[in-house]
Amino acid sequence: MEKDNKKKKIITLVISILIIIILILAISYAYFSTRLNGSDQIVKVGELELVLNETSEGITLDNAIGLSDEDGMNLTPSTFELRNNGDKAVDYTIYLDDNTIDDADTRIDDMYLKYNLNKNGADSGATLLTRTGSNPNRVLDSGTIEGGVTNTYSLNLWITDEVDGNYSGQVFSGVLRVEVSQERAMEASTVLLDNIPEDNLYDDGIDTFITGEDPNNYIWYSGKLWRAVSVNNETKTVKLVTQWSISSIPYSNGSSKFTGSYMEEWLNDTSVDGFLGNLRDHENFIVTDAKWDATMDNRSLGNITRPNGTTVVTDAVGLLNMYEYQTSYTGTTYSNGYLNNELWWWTLTPSDNSSINVIFEPGNVGHNEPASSFGVRPSVILKSSINIVGGNGSEYDPYRLDGDNDNNLSGTLLNTRYSGEYISFGLGENNLYRIVSHETEKLTKITSAEALKKSDGFVQTAFGNDITFSKNNAIGSFLNGEYLNNYVDKKQSDMIEDSTIWYLGAVGEGTSYKLAKYTDVSGKTLTSNSTSTKVGLLRLGELLAGQTDKYISNAHYWLLTPYDSSRVRDIGNSSDSYFLPVGWADYGIKPALNLKSNVIITSGDGTKENPFEIALQ
What we know:
Layout: E1 10-14, E2 20-25, E3 29-35, E4 41-45, E5 48-53, E6 59-62, H1 69-73, E7 78-84, E8 90-98, E9 113-119, E10 122-123, E11 127-128, E12 139-145, E13 150-159, E14 171-181, E15 186-187, H2 188-195, E16 201-203, E17 207-210, E18 218-221, E19 224-232, E20 238-242, E21 247-250, H3 262-267, H4 282-285, E22 290-293, E23 312-315, H5 322-326, E24 345-352, E25 355-359, E26 365-368, E27 373-376, E28 379-382, E29 387-390, E30 399-401, E31 422-424, E32 432-437, E33 444-448, E34 453-454, E35 457-458, E36 460-461, H6 474-479, H7 482-486, H8 490-495, E37 500-503, E38 530-533, E39 535-536, E40 557-562, E41 567-571, E42 577-581, E43 587-588, E44 592-595, E45 599-603, E46 613-616
Parallel strand pairs: 18-30
Antiparallel strand pairs: 1-14, 2-3, 2-14, 3-6, 4-5, 5-7, 7-13, 8-12, 8-14, 9-10, 9-11, 9-13, 15-29, 16-17, 17-19, 18-19, 19-20, 20-28, 21-27, 22-23, 24-25, 25-26, 29-30, 31-32, 32-33, 33-44, 34-35, 36-43, 37-38, 39-44, 40-41, 41-42, 45-46
């Protein structure tokens, strides 16, 4: 495939003299300084200028090793400006890269450092440096700067007192790097194919597939991290699949057909209970009459012949079939392909009339009964008209889509945002949550990004004495007692709606996800099996009930959905859902709660690297 190099106008500035931030730690003091050559430093790219201003000789903090967020925010910052002296908007990304340190020095781990970036008067808030990504992909800021506009910044960096560790005498040294794109929005298909090496492209004459172990094909859309799988050669549409499982549900009541299955219904459910109903402006972003090849195939891995189209389904949302999974790695070691995320997830391909092909943690395939519950990785097809307006396609700086790249959200109500977006909420290592849905009008249901952690692993508890979740059973008592006292602070607790209804309908083997909330599969009448508490758990089939970023040993966590009269649903290490006797084992806890209607965003963009900071209005 011939690439049009004229379309690629990415200019990278490595400004090694602009800013050097050195943090030297010792037993009795911490010292922060900004070193510059001369006064103002200016670098130009066409009409764009990056200007760093010298603001101080440095700060000495006597008898301090770690700083509180308040003290760190009050340090005298380093300041710089980004000026667009032209009349056209350009896209930019500002990185903080590692700078060279002396051989005798030891570099401090990012986990011990926090920063605050003030942009045009708005603080990012005290944030762990790890949230920016890892070197060389620490993103301090990105976006679009219009012609004639100047962005002003100030940066504080300090040692956090929230993380214990032995970092005496260690050093941090960094440099600013700015990437500027002077050609803005380009079609997603063009950007992907122009920036993936030829060796990582496989053209079967109909679609061009992206292959390899970890290509730069990450896309952030509607609060979720996706991978671009292929570009259709004729229409220039782009097939996406979520990087992680979004939920876990039974595929069907026994049939291996996608048409009419619970899976098809859940993926294309436009209500708050399904996937499509929580996808941002799907009519504008995705092909709603896409074709999905669900042709039966019981061959083992290694047969990558394109299916013949015997069974094609028309839907807005589907799953990947076995052929598409195998094209992610064109050799024989399929575990090395980027589509193997080390979880268990359904494919679209039946292996026979009563079995579905499932991808398992090592990257191999198994044939499983549709009544089981495995992870769901929805797949959509981006319209050819969708443009990429930011990012570089890496995991920590994924491509951003025009229309889904919101900036300056300060003051926006949280209840207007999208399922999957990240929120800074909770304390210590449990300070990252995600939006689930807006199931209750004007409220925002959220859940912790991972099961609650502690220093030696995960917080675990028995479910209770029976299958009924309540504020008085074991896990409900923990959530509405110890959790509220020790895992959130007073301001955060005040943001939580005092009473939420939690639906406790049972979902047995091969039954519909809708029974967790409704009396029958029509979804018209809410179940009377429910309880009201301030904090609860997710139910089977909810978004993010089954979500995990990776395989983690012993990371099982409870759901509140009964399986039968003695067993309750859980989510396993690999995003699969099984069922356990309530007193059989202690399992993990993934709190769910509703935030009040007057919670607003104060900063952040909702990504994992830059989660929303929130407050009561």
